[in-house]
Amino acid sequence: MSCKRKRCRGTAVLLISVVLGLAASPVRADGKGKWIPVSDEVIAQLEKQGKKIGWPGLTGGVGVDRANGDVYMMVCDNGLWKSADRGKSFERIDGGAIGGRCETGFALDIDPAGNRVACFPVYGPAASSLDAGKTWQKSTANHVDCIAVAWPDLAMLSIRHESGGDLIFAPDGGKTWKSLGKGFNGVGLFDVKTFVAFKDKGILRSVDGGANWASVSDLKPTGKSMRVLDGVGYWIGERGVLTSPDKGATWALLSSPVSCTIGPYFGKDANHLVVFGKQGAMETADAGKTWKSAAPLPPGIDGGYMSQFGWDPIHDVFYAGKMGQPTFKYER
Fold this sequence. Notes:
This protein is mostly beta strands. The protein has two helices and 28 strands. A four-stranded antiparallel sheet has the order 1-28-27-26, with no helix packed on it. It has a four-stranded antiparallel sheet with strand order 2-3-4-5, with no helix packed on it.
């Protein structure tokens, strides 16, 4: 090859490198502006101790306490871990009460008021805590697809995994459960008597603990579990976030449509929300009137319903994971 051809080839490689560099997300010197794994040290510690990481490996579940920024992370078949320093260090907190893995982003329910968490994985025991993981109340039901909790009463609704949509209810923190029928795809509850759910279309509501159901809206949720803040219900739907101010009696789209699969996660108030989906994190500060991109997706996380996310609005940090992948954080 001539020197001239070598120079042309080198110039082409340089140009490609420059273009790729310009296309990449900018990363500041402080490490912010990119996704970084926070689970590596925990995995290495467990492997050094000879502990077996369950299928499909690494982690499977992440959530954040909105009130203080504490991060909860599931390690496959190795319980629930918590970090109080934005993922710099973790300690296992469940005392063996929790196992398996979280298959979807709706297996962790953390009270927006803070310090209360329920973890309901598949292929392992489930439990809830009213004191940020210091003590745990074990559930007699596990292997479920999602969990919805009426805090602080600890009434619970869930759907059994691979059961044909078997909806189950416990009024007492998971001690006693009863089936409410099959064919359900998503759930929510406002109190021990007032439930919402959906099957193949629209929203169903019960005001007598699931004994009777009535259709209340043609709007279709897609999220497996509704979330509640200050008595208002929030549910991921086909066109965006659905809301109900009256315990599920009526529903409406929260202002502008937005593409999303998991959430919503609450900021300082009801106007400040984040949702996640295949486009990454989307944020609104005006109750859904406008949405803007807040973070891209990390590597290996597709943003589908089996992805898992969390948001720390105090320190402005996003977290993401998926079973079989590391747990990541993104600081803006």
